[in-house]
Design goal:
mainly beta, 262 residues, 1 helix, 5% helix, ten-stranded antiparallel beta barrel, elongated
């Protein structure tokens, strides 16, 4: 059994909708270019910003299940180096401006289930719910000995609406909006300067609601989409050492994907 067939079979079993109606699937593999921004805001008004391009690969699939149910799967991997415009915190607590670069490597995935409320062949109207997770490594500059690595993990629910229009010539246009509802955030920073004893820092940034918007086109083997995603992280509690916390942070990504369907 091929991997693709195994995935489809597993989803049918999990959904409990294994009836005699046919199940069809449509997947697309895309090259992705992102305009990425990360911002942190300290309580005293000091802020830092990272901005630049990230590139990656994205795969998404739509599986038509029986009884108007549909399943959507997403996965991506990305990497890149962006500009850092921020500050250094000295041992006496003073802050000075600092510019450098930050590298990112990340993975994400999501699985949505929707129900088509429309009876039209041309129009689909699918409210959906799902789950998603995102893991990334943020490597701050270490050329001057100030850098360290942050590992981030967030898990969240997804609630939204997808609208699909299909022409008689086979062209499909879609748009979706989703609220991202995190229920777990974790940050692990290693080799942190000024840390006492163990130089690892563990934090749990507060959960804040984010959102995702996307519009796309499928025609023949071509897949094309544009998207915007915003995630927010509230200020964490101070770590066990009493020295470190994660300030309020935002992650904004706008991008374009172009790929092939199979």
């Amino acid at each position: 059994m091929t991997i693709r067939a195994s995935v489809v079979a597993a989803m049918i079993g999990l959904s409990g909708l294994a009836y005699a109606e046919p199940v069809t699937s449509d997947f697309a593999l895309s090259f992705m270019v992102n305009d990425f921004t990360w911002q942190e805001n300290l309580p005293d008004g000091t802020s830092l910003e990272e901005n630049g391009p990230l590139i990656g690969l994205h795969i998404q699939g739509q599986v038509d299940l029986p009884r108007a149910w549909e399943s959507f799967l997403y996965g991506e991997v990305y990497a890149g180096t962006v500009d850092y415009d921020g500050f250094l915190i000295n041992i006496d607590g003073s802050i000075e401006p600092y510019k450098s670069e930050t590298s990112y490597v990340g993975f994400s995935g999501a699985w949505d289930f929707g129900y088509n409320l429309s009876t039209s062949e041309e129009l689909g109207l699918l409210p959906f719910v799902g789950l998603g997770t995102h893991y990334w490594l943020r490597s701050l500059d270490d050329e001057e000995g100030f850098g360290y690595d942050e590992y981030w993990l967030t898990m969240y629910g997804r609630v939204g609406l997808r609208v699909i229009w299909r022409s008689t010539t086979g062209t499909e246009v879609y748009a979706l909006g989703a609220a991202l509802l995190p229920f777990y955030n974790y940050e692990w920073a290693v080799n942190v300067p000024l840390a006492r004893g163990n130089d690892d820092v563990e934090l749990e940034p507060e959960e804040e609601v984010g959102y995702q918007l996307e519009a796309g086109l499928n025609r023949g083997r071509l897949h094309l989409s544009v998207f915007y995603e915003a995630m927010e992280f509230g200020q964490s509690d101070v770590d066990d050492s009493g020295l470190f916390f994660q300030p309020e942070s935002t992650r904004d990504v706008a991008g374009i994907r172009i790929g092939i369907r199979f």
